[in-house]
Amino acid sequence: MPSPSLPSRVRLVDVGPRDGLQNEKGVVPTEVKVALIEALADAGVTAIEATSFVSPKWVPQMADAADVMQRVRRRQGVRYSALVPNMKGFEGALAAKVDEVVVFGAASEAFSQKNINCSIVESIERFASVARAARDAGMKVRGAISCCLGCPYQGEVKPGAVGYVAKLMHGIGVQHVGVADTIGVGTPGATKRALEAALAVYPLDEVSGHFHDTYGMALANVYASLELGVATFDASVAGLGGCPYAKGATGNVATEDVVYLLHGLGIETGVDLAKLRAAGRTISAFLGRPTGSRVAKALDAKVAP
Ligand code: HMG
Ligand code: MG
Question: H-helix or E-strand containing 79?
Fold first, then answer.
């Protein structure tokens, strides 16, 4: 039984195929991406951020977004989402029949410029058209707010900046916000303050945590979020990834590690850790790197001859 103050069930969104692979320098073939997405669904992950409909000049790795979505064998009960920065991206996502689109802004002006080439206010204007079109198409629209705990260009980011962007997103009909620690600098107290700023605007069910693990704080930040009742987290199988516009930032917290933490707390996820590890092993082998998951490493060491 989980502690009465923690959620009894958590929803995990595996962002490995998108946040994880977008940062890879070498081309990852479409079939490898498709196999990863299918393996995650087989492991019981019910929400997968599959790709991004962004400019291929900005992020060449995501240029096969339409192909990925077309080839992937959809599993019933799984939500496949994609990042879209503007209407061009939305049209691609709609044609590819994604279930959910994600607009991505920032709590830092400098990061907004570097990542999507416009100011925060301009980004909201673009997202407003996307949110309207998504609603008309009966599609859910989530928002990601980058740099909620610090910015690689601007330094400190205050909770007020998170609340400001959350309010703007709410005002245009974005249904959910993800509080993102893009560069993984946050600690639990600061993470709670950033989440509280989003929770002043959105209900508990519509706020999630997205924590990169650069400083090794991501699991502590997940736990701090659970204490607030937050029950949705992004995580990346094998800890893959980073952001091409946030140099040095490592991948998202490894999904395997979050699952181990949650199951240890008696919190349900619906994810089969053994199958998830297998998915992580396959993609890590393809990339020629050891897994970024501490839990996968520890469990692998136990079965090694
Ligand atoms: P821009 O250059 O200002 O765009 O980029 P533009 O509107 O001037 O168009 C320039 C060219 O891009 C045109 O093509 C457009 O058609 C094309 P051309 O006429 O030159 O041949 N274009 C597109 N092509 C495909 N799909 C599109 C699209 N839009 C325009 N959607 C833009 C602005 C937003 C497009 C660009 O900056 C961009 O694509 N940025 C994406 C950056 C990105 O993907 N970053 C990583 C994801 S965010 C992240 O990782 C953070 C997150 O994980 C949370 C966290 O950890 O913080 C979510
Ligand atoms: Mg990210």
Answer: strand 79-83
Under a CB-based contact definition with an 8 Å cutoff, are residues 102 and 49 in contact? yes
Q: Is 243 a catalytic residue?
A: yes
Is 173 a residue whose pLDDT tops 90?
yes
Specify whether the CB–CB gap between 186 and 211 falls below 8 A: yes
Select from 3.40.50.1820, 3.30.420.10, 3.20.20.70, 3.40.800.10 the CATH code of 11-303.
3.20.20.70
**What is the distance in A from the centroid of ligand 2 to the CA of 67?**
22
- Choosing from 54, 68, 88, 151 the residue with most ligand 1 atoms within 8 A of its CB, the one to mutate for a pocket test is 54
Distance between alpha carbon 202 and the CA centroid of its chain, in Å?
18
Ligand 1 site residues (CB inside 6 A) read: 19, 22, 52-55, 57-59, 83, 85-86, 88-89, 104, 115-117, 144, 146, 180, 182, 210, 212, 243-245
Answer yes or no: is pLDDT of 257 > 80.
Answer: yes
Q: What residue segments make up the domains of the chain, in order of their start?
A: 11-303
Mean pLDDT (whole number) for 248-271: 96
Backbone angles phi, psi at 98, to 5 degrees: -75, 155
Q: How far is the centre of ligand 1, averaged over its atoms, from the C-alpha of 52 (Å)? A: 9
Query: Measured in angstroms, how far is the CA atom of residue 304 from the centroid of ligand 2?
Result: 32
Q: What is the pLDDT of residue 291?
A: 95
Q: Is the pTM of this model over 0.85?
A: yes
Is 257 exposed, middle or buried (CB count within 10 Å of its CB: 0-12, 13-18, 19+)? buried
Integer Cα distance of 301 and 305 in angstroms: 9
Give the pLDDT mean for 130-155: 97
Percent of the residues in the chain that have a pLDDT greater than 90, as a whole number: 93
